Amino acid sequence: xxxxxxxxxDKVARRTFLAFPAAFRVMAEAVLIRVxxxxxxxxxxxxxxxxxxxxxxxYEGVPLPEKSLDFPEISPDVIWLFREPILAEWEERDDVExxxxxxxxxxxxxxxxxxxxxxxxxxxxxxxx
Length: 129
What we know:
Blueprint: H1 6-18, H2 22-28, E1 32-36, H3 41-47, E2 57-60, E3 78-82, H4 83-93, H5 98-113, H6 118-124
Parallel strand pairs: 1-3
Antiparallel strand pairs: 2-3
Helix pairs in contact: 1-5
């Protein structure tokens, strides 16, 4: 079976972002969305994750509540979606549409940008966590 490519994942993630309420889109319009096949070794080491398939997405940046005008950021915030781990979870679960899973990971990572913890996100979207 042929799986959707990175461009498809990007399209779904951007469509998900465009469906955010306007106030949230404005607060996140500078965040970049990137799709990679797998997380890098550095990402896995930083998070102390041994199995790359366990990481479907990642927010790299400074959450909004922690940002300061006194210390401008050097690089932009990035939402990473990892295609292979998302596909593996989708195939393993067999109870969710791929677009819904991509959207969930996208929303989850943007929630970190807004300053939400994993526990707070799980309370809002318990069906996936």
